[in-house]
Amino acid sequence: MSKTKKITIKAFRFNAETDYLPYYKKYEMEIGKDELILDLLNRIKWEHDGSFSYRRSCRHGICGACGIKVNGKATLACKQNAMELVELFGDELIFEPQSQKRAVKDMIIDKGDFWEKHAAVKPFVETEIDPHPTSETIMSKEQVENFLDADYCIQCGSCHYACPVIEVNEEYLGPAAFAAAYRFTVDPRDEAGKERLETTAELGSGVWDCVKCYECAEACPKDVNPIEKITKLHNMQFEQGVAKRNVATKHAEGFVRSIKKFGYLDEQDIVLYSEGLGVVKHLSEALKMIKAGKVHPFDIMKTKMPKSKNLDEIKKLIEISQKNKL
Amino acid sequence: MSNLKYALYTGCTARESTPELLSSTMAVAKKLGIELVLLDEASCCGASHLQDFDEFLSLVLNARNICYAEKLGLDMVTICNTCQLNSAMTKERLDSDPELKAKVNEKLAEVGLEYQGTSRVRHFQYVLIEDYGLENIRERVEVPLSHFNIAPFYGCHNIRPSELHHEVNGNENPYNPTSLDNLIEALEGNSVDYESKNKCCGFHVDLQAPETSNALSGGALVDAIDNNADLMVTPCPLCQLNMDLKQDSAGKQLGREIELPVLHLPQMIALALGCSAEEIGLKYNVTKATELIS
What we know:
The structure holds two protein chains of two kinds. By secondary structure, chain A is an alpha+beta fold.
């Protein structure tokens, strides 16, 4: 393979003060194997158009300023080798801001919603501080390892603006805020854990509105794996008795009830059990399913339900492995 | 093709509200001479919800399912993206963490089982592509799909997180997956290129946040329609259910009329291989695709 490659960059251009609509401008350049996306941003500005705007600061993957999207992929410009993306997407790279509807100028966005939501989970250790301590606060290796990977978050916004729920639900706190909520809740010095669990348990804004698309895990340049932390928050809500009985928590817990009986999920029962009286809102869909022969509403004895072989094993495993209760 | 044999983990949906997924999977396997042994002992994978309630229990139950494939000495094959994710994630965690594996095996020992890590966990889509081969599938086509613009909808849990799946999904690029497009082309259909093909359908919040679910599924359907799709195809029955069943409510929310048949991947393949509408259970699809097979 040759050491350089000629590529085209299609860059999103927009100035909120003067432009009615955004547009794309093409830049051709020969790139080297060691160049970073940040180098290409610099070259657009230095070699082609001085008005091209983007955020940059540390150049060390620490400050989180230079997050953009390249061909839809969340990218921390100073950490991402350009040739790698050429291999992934071909020789046309599309540079876009993390969120087009929040664009202020070219790659620069208004990140206000990110900071507001991040702040909402108290992303700091909250505790009474003894002004004259006589010894250090010692943490065990295990205690540190509990939150170490979450602590690598640099608030770059990659996961936040990759999350599809952020785009359609303004209340939703988002994966970065949840990862921070987890990080400080499991910190042994912290005393605001219960409050954070309550905040993140709210329907609409909390973890129960996660669609489980794994976009955040894919987007994070620091391997924080936010959705893994979201799962941990879910579990901690049950472990610490914060989880309230609602459609979402009953839905999660209801799986055990079905699996005990059949091994399989009873798809009709889980909706009835989770929704309670709210089940009426599914009427039109239920009728469609009945009409297509997908469900059997009058099968009271559940003769049509499949049953796992060796169901006794499953029951026993639930009995000896289940830790949480609603 | 000689001796392709796998342990089939059906998941719940294929045995309940999407029986057409199971029948069309079996029809494809029969046509291609692939042997699928049903894992009748398996339980629900927890559908990514059980793990929110009790993560350890979810690991134990998923490990148990894999044990039964290991007993047969076969790879475990899934036909649902979410089953694939939960099974593969369990496998990855147990294979990389001996302590956790020991804890899970301590429970499994109580019912006389042991998770070893000897079976791979793979989705039927990639088994067909990698083991049977696109060229061989192309040769078996009896009814080319050349009249149809088909929008592939990949479904999150086969492509993300890519690090988990890359060894069993042909290193699919989660930002620009191509395997389904290639499969459609092999059946001589026209694959539709549209932005939403690798996006989320919103199924997993359909109970607690139907507006989110409708916005995501409706958005993808509209995107496919606007790019001239005649039908959509997906390897995931949860995507299929959400996209097939909720077109009216999603359309109402988006202020658009939405009507697009959504086929399970094996239904589409079976059609091209010459199976009948009955064999692929077309009557169970809510948004009717009957005209497509006339």
